[in-house]
Amino acid sequence: MIAADFTLEMMRVGRKPGDPPYSAADALNLPFKEVTFDAVTSGFLMRNVTDVNHALQEQYRILKSGGRIVILDTTRPKKNILSPFIWLHMHFIIPMLGKLISGSGDAYQYLPESTEGFLSAEELAARMTAVGFKNVHFKRLMFGTIAIHWGER
What we know:
By secondary structure, the chain is α/β, with parallel strands linked by helices. It has helices at 8-14, 52-62, 83-102, 106-117, 121-131; strands at 3-5, 22-24, 37-43, 63-74, 134-141, 146-152.
């Protein structure tokens, strides 16, 4: 097992004794050999890369045959009766709470903007399939603002 992130300093700050080894890694050019891992997971990565298809291809490349991928990320919620409340929550409540807790509201303003500009859960699943992943599924959580996708190589 190895943990990887683009920002090595963030990994150093969050590191605890007993954590797996870690590596600085660009999701568009992973520093790992082909067919190395049994599983690849990412959390809130895909909406932050410049080329989702390329990031998915890289994850596919490093997985062994039968290996699993799991992606946790934000997603645009489907329109429904709660949509106005979700919009208010994302654009006002989250930034306000973020500013109160962290002292900086800018990072929490980025969250709703990047979520609304990102792929829908259905679109991400289709891209995973297009790259070659099989048995691709997803589940929406948090009133449809978060999705967990999974599939196999």
